[in-house]
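FIELD: query
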Amino acid sequence: MMIDYESAKAAFEKYVAQYDLSDNKIRLKWIHTYGVVAYAQRIAEEEKLGEEDIQLAKLIALLHDIGRFEQIRQFNSFNDNNVSHAKLASDYLFKEEHMRDFIEDNQYDEIIKKAIEQHSLYKIEEQGNKREILHIKLLRDADKLDNFRVKNTEEIETLFDISMEELSQQKITDRIYDQILCSQPIVAEERKTNIDMWVSWIAFIFDLNFRSSFKCLIEMDYITKNIDRIDYQLDYTRKKMELIKKHCNRYIVWRSVTK
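FIELD: result
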């Protein structure tokens, strides 16, 4: 049985209709979902996957953040310290048995479950068969790519619950700066300021898996756009962010031809 993405999309829209789309955080995640779907389809096609895996990648992307809506309703926050949005999604789809709302066939359940549960982890567990690992990595890349779009377009107040003026006056900590110049993803617990958090999103590039993902970053120039969006008021931070921008853009070009 082939995957009916349009039917799954209709079920997803019915689910989202329970929530207040005039809430900026809810709207952000609704739009983000379809951004991830588009990137998942693009990566899958550019990596020359078969039609079944392309449709499966789109379905996983459609469902990957379904836990965010309840997280926002309960806590008005994207902070997973309150509750893991990936666990909320997995529990809703599988423990509460709503997966059949989106697809009748259960043959893909284990792939979908693993991809959703691992999409926001610092590192994937690398357990599972080749197809499971493929879809885990594909979702993670698509999610990160659309997060760069989100950080370039959404209001700072929606992302941080502080103003752009407050954000621009914050400092990047030495530990975070050193990690990114070593081309390392940032451990969430090590972030001290909102600028650290901003930089940790930039560091998503160090955990991308597909050459097509790096080519997309070059095409959209997301690193430069994200970093230049903030008018850093502290000389220390401004200089550090310029160095980060140069390092990251060089890294992306290198990975676009070597990965």
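FIELD: remark
DSSP finds 14 helices and no strands in the chain.
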